[in-house]
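Incident log, support desk, overnight shift.

02:14 A customer reports that sequence design results differ from what the structure should imply. Their input is reproduced verbatim below. On-call engineer (initials T.W.) acknowledged and began investigating.
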């Protein structure tokens, strides 16, 4: 039976092959290689949402059945899914060649919100719920990054001006506040993630 590590390598290999077919300029040995791993993590998140489970062993067991059975059917699915992923990538991701100028107070506010999120009880579960809602609303690309950006942005709204005051964050309140915004995303276009990297085919 294929090990979990071997399963991941096989899926990454299929994604790499599909990228080269769909994006002729794609270089699997250059900086574009990061794209494969972004897509891999998004694909696993998609399976989690589709199969309604966070159990990695259950997900692996189901995927192993595809490889032991109709491998070509699975490859065809990956090709179809990657078409949608690339479409979302071109809409939701912007590549920056230099660091943007952001007001200092905005950076400080974002850093405080990020730290509050990381310290918050239930932060991992909140992020998983937001990821699932994003996927259910058609956002299948860079799901982890978009989820964290939305959460941090919402937390920043509740950060007190007095840094000495603690902020009382309820994950359920944050999720409820983000739900209508996530629903509206399907009707909106434009970038949600900014990456300061250089990729040859963008």
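02:41 Re-run completed on a clean worker. Output:
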């Amino acid at each position: 039976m294929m090990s979990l590590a071997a399963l991941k390598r096989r899926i990454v290999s299929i994604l790499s092959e599909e990228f080269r077919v769909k994006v002729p300029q794609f270089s699997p040995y250059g900086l574009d290689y990061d794209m494969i791993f972004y897509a891999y993590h998004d694909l696993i998140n998609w399976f989690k949402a589709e199969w309604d489970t966070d159990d990695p062993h259950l997900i692996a067991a189901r995927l192993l059945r595809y490889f032991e059975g109709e491998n070509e059917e699975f490859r065809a699915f990956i090709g179809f899914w990657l078409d949608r992923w690339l479409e979302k990538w071109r809409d939701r991701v912007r590549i920056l060649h230099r660091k943007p100028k952001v007001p200092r107070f905005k950076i400080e506010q974002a850093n405080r919100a990020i730290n509050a999120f990381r310290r918050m009880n239930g932060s991992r579960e909140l992020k998983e719920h937001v990821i699932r809602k994003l996927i259910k609303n058609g956002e299948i690309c860079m799901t982890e990054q978009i989820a964290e950006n939305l959460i941090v942005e919402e937390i920043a709204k509740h950060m007190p001006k007095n840094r000495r005051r603690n902020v009382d964050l309820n994950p359920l309140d944050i999720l409820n506040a983000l739900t209508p915004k996530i629903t509206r995303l399907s009707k909106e276009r434009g970038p949600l993630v900014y990456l300061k990297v250089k990729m040859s085919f963008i």
